[in-house]
């Protein structure tokens, strides 16, 4: 957004007096607005203002997290972000947007509870990555790290789930020098954190007609299907090693591979899952990068099937390294779940199972970086998507 240019007249005495007062107080000089006239000075963004930007961002995303927690202490209380006033605060429009977001997250919490999942506590921390100021506009980029504690509904849940997300907040300074948030947007390659409400990004791939690109059958999402036991040890692949790799690098990326976040076309999700499969024993199949019957990935070169959602599916089926499961709840450690959010026939996201408790698979993935999110939570957030479950 371009800065607003203001016609003004200067009053030398006013400027000098304000500057002297500011110097004594040790604070940044803010514009002195008078009826029909303004100073030339733009509001300054010092370290204290940046800290206020960060605190408000932390409050916004903490409010979203609190809406998911199954405890009454947050109910009926004013949102943390709504308590900011003065130098930094929400605009009225963003305030209404966040009110609506928390109501939607309340609904998501209730859907989860009806499916047997609750969170007993949540913790969100926001760090300030950078601030860019142009006139009366400040664009603030932050990273959110959130941890949610699973309530012991069945007694077998993992301890926690967590995710890391990236956001951009736009602030505009008004005539009084108050910075107000006018826009909040996600900046990752996908919108798959449990407290995010934006629609997931989708991909479109031209349909293939050759026999090397089979169509995977959809998996049902009903609970308590017939069991399909998996031998986790003593076989060709080390499924525990797959899970260990994914849980080690879910947020701290392995520098031995490229990071495709920010590159578009789905981000880093399939690249990450392929790395985990490779750590558990999947061998390279060398060849041309665009040949979907080949599979390989290093720091320097990767086949399309190593990093592409649909291409991975074509390779996995054609190579017989996977079989399709009839239901997502049949997945076990090392199995892979893919999602077609808009049901257009092109898969959009890839995840790997790193834990299974009481018949519920828990998924770890990139884009958005996430650890041990239950398949129940994924389905509750995207009940109309198409799901594809692969036994590896």
Describe what this molecule looks like in 3D.
By secondary structure, the protein is α+β, with helices and mostly antiparallel strands. Helices cover 26% and strands 23% of the residues. It has 8 helices and 11 strands. The two termini are 49 Å apart. Mean pLDDT is 86; it is low at 1-40.
Pick out the low-confidence regions.
1-40
Query: What is the string of helix and strand elements?
Result: HHEHEEEEHHHHEEEEEHE
Radius of gyration: 25 Å
The termini sit apart by: 49 Å
- Mean pLDDT, to the nearest integer, reads 86
Features:
disordered N terminus, 23% strand, eleven-stranded mixed sheet, 392 residues, alpha+beta, globular
Please outline what is shown here.
Helix content is 26%, strand content 23%.
Topology at a glance:
Elements: H1 12-25, H2 47-66, E1 88-90, H3 92-114, E2 119-134, E3 137-150, E4 160-173, E5 179-186, H4 239-249, H5 269-279, H6 304-307, H7 309-318, E6 323-325, E7 336-340, E8 349-357, E9 360-365, E10 369-374, H8 375-381, E11 386-391
Parallel strand pairs: 1-5
Antiparallel strand pairs: 2-3, 3-4, 4-5, 4-10, 6-11, 7-8, 7-11, 8-9, 9-10
Helix pairs in contact: 2-3, 4-5
């Amino acid at each position: 957004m371009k800065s607003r240019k203001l016609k003004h007249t200067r009053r030398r005495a006013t400027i000098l007096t304000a500057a002297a007062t500011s110097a004594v107080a040790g604070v940044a000089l803010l514009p002195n607005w008078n009826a029909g006239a303004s100073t030339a000075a733009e509001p300054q963004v010092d370290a204290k203002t940046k800290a206020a930007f960060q605190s408000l961002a932390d409050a916004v995303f903490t409010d979203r997290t609190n809406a998911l927690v199954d405890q009454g202490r947050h109910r009926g209380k004013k949102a943390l972000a709504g308590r900011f006033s003065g130098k930094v605060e929400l605009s009225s429009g963003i305030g209404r947007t966040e009110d609506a977001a928390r109501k939607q997250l309340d609904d998501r919490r209730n859907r989860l509870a009806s499916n047997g999942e609750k969170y007993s506590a949540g913790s969100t921390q926001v760090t300030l990555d950078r601030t860019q100021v142009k006139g009366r506009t400040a664009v603030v980029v932050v990273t959110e790290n959130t941890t949610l504690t699973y309530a012991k509904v069945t007694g077998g849940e993992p301890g926690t789930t967590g995710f890391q997300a990236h956001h951009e907040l736009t602030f505009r300074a008004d005539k009084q020098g108050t910075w107000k948030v006018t826009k909040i947007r996600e900046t990752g390659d996908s919108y798959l954190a449990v407290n995010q409400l934006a629609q997931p990004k989708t991909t479109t791939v031209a349909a293939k007609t050759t026999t090397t690109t089979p169509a995977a059958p959809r998996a049902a999402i009903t609970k308590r299907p017939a069991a399909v036991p998996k031998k986790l040890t003593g076989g060709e692949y080390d499924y525990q090693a797959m899970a260990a790799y994914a849980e080690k690098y879910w947020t701290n990326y392995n520098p031995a591979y490229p990071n495709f976040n920010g590159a578009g076309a789905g981000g880093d999700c399939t690249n990450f899952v392929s790395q985990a499969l490779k750590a558990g024993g999947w061998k390279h199949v060398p060849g041309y990068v665009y040949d979907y019957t080949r599979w390989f990935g290093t720091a320097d070169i990767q086949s399309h099937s190593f990093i592409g959602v649909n291409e991975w599916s074509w390779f996995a089926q054609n190579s017989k390294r996977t079989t399709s499961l009839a239901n997502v709840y049949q997945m076990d450690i090392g199995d892979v779940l893919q999602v077609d959010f808009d049901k257009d026939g092109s898969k959009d996201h890839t995840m790997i199972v790193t834990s299974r408790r009481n018949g519920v698979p828990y998924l770890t993935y990139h884009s958005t970086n996430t650890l041990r999110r239950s398949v129940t939570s994924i389905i509750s957030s995207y009940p109309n998507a198409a799901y594809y479950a692969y036994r590896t």
